[in-house]
Amino acid sequence: MSTPQEKRRALTPEALAMMDTIARTGSFAAAAREMGRVPSALTYSVRQLEDALDVLLFDRSSRQAVLTSAGQELLVEGRRLLQDLDAVANRVRRIATGWETELTLAVDDALARRAVFDLMEAFYAERIDGGGPPPTRLKLRVEVLAGTWEALLSGQADIAIGAGTRVPSAAVDCEPLGPLEFVFCVAPHHPLAQAPEPLTAAQIAEHRIITVADSARQMQPITVGVLPGQDVLTLPTLAAKVEGLLRGLGCGSVPAPMVKRHIEAGRLVRKTTYEGHRGGTMHYAWRKSPSGSSQPTGKALAWWLARLSSDATRKALLEQHEGLLI
Q1: Ranges in the chain annotated CATH 1.10.10.10
Q2: Mind telling me which residue stretches traverse the membrane in this protein (predicted)?
Q3: Least buried of 214, 229, 262, 321, by fewest C-beta within 10 Å?
Q4: Where in the chain is the domain with CATH 3.40.190.290?
Q5: What is the C-alpha to C-alpha distance for residues 298 and 134, in angstroms, rounded to an integer?
Q6: From CA 8, how far away is CA 106, in angstroms rounded?
Q7: What is the pLDDT along the chain (326 residues), one digit of tens a residue?
Q8: Three-class SS of residue 211?
């Protein structure tokens, strides 16, 4: 019986291609002609493969090249492996032209997910040498507050989109994405809905506030809007927070574009508070190249930075919340 190492050595691309040719042409003779070999040499190669795998690949009772069930399975899996090998070779060739193997995006939960997916769709629609899409695998991380910066600074992400207050670091470059307003909201049936404005800190502290957990693990987590002694409901995402507000489970501030349609429809009530206007500038940032240059070394990162330099793209990321809250 063959050892596992001998079986692996027998399953060469050449052996798999031979099986494919025999099955496709229907006979050993026709396969031998196509491959430029004599039929006896091809028969010998098949027997060597059968001996190594300890299975019968072809039905010897038939005059044609009829595969056994084991042979059929090897043919199917062998074709898949050959396709995978071709794909790897093509990916390696494309990556050699400057495309990264993988690009990780850390996107803040406050940004419009629909716009993020539009960008990913546009990225995959690009056609490079050979007509295929970029070989770079995209990985999306959704982060909250300080977690967006942490993902970038720790090397877990290549670009942070929607980072809040700028974190000073010589290792990254940072550009403004645009201003984002936050509004304080409650459900129409919440006790604060009919309270006179502006709401005082004492009034708000009497009611449960809904917050979203900061996703940072190493950096100091950020807590926004929680008053001393206030009851807190902590949820994992802003979409969950909006759902909690709609159900009257508490009060809290959320990005204005995210709840615009709910306010217009009367499902949420916007309230002014003692804090006045709340908002800030969102940013996008990326790590500098090893040489310290702000110019990206990879073509995938360069693609994303070029799109983020567009006013329309930045506006969509901040405002295009309709239809997709995941």
Answers
A1: 4-95
A2: none
A3: 229
A4: 179-276
A5: 12
A6: 40
A7: 667 777 778 888 888 888 888 888 888 888 889 889 998 888 888 888 888 888 888 887 777 778 889 888 988 888 888 777 766 665 565 556 688 888 999 999 999 999 999 999 999 999 887 678 888 999 999 999 889 998 998 888 999 999 887 766 777 889 999 999 999 999 999 999 999 999 999 999 999 999 999 888 877 777 778 899 999 999 999 999 999 999 999 999 999 999 999 999 999 999 999 988 888 899 999 987 765 555 666 899 999 999 999 999 999 999 988 754 54
A8: strand
Residues 198/224, Cβ–Cβ less than 8 Å: no
Find out if CATH 3.40.50.2000 is the number for domain 4-95: no
- Residues with Cβ within 8 Å of 80's Cβ and at least 6 positions away in sequence, in order, are none
Q: Which residues contact 113 (CB under 8 A, 6 or more apart)?
A: 107, 321, 324, 325, 326
Q: Which of 190, 182, 208, 199 is nearest to 271 (CA)?
A: 199
Q: What's domain 179-276's architecture?
A: 3-Layer(aba) Sandwich (3.40)
HSE-CB of 179 using CA atoms within 13 angstroms: 5
Contact (Cβ atoms closer than 8 angstroms) between residue 277 and residue 181: yes
Distance CA 96, CA 92 (A): 6
Report whether 130 contacts 90 (CB < 8 A): yes
Residues of the chain with CATH 3.40.190.10: 102-178+281-319
> Is the torsion defined by CA of 159, 162, 167, 173 positive or negative?
positive
Distance of alpha carbon 135 from alpha carbon 114, whole angstroms: 23
Whole-structure pTM value: 0.69
Burial of residue 62, with CB atoms counted within 10 A of its CB: 0-12 exposed, 13-18 middle, 19 or more buried: exposed
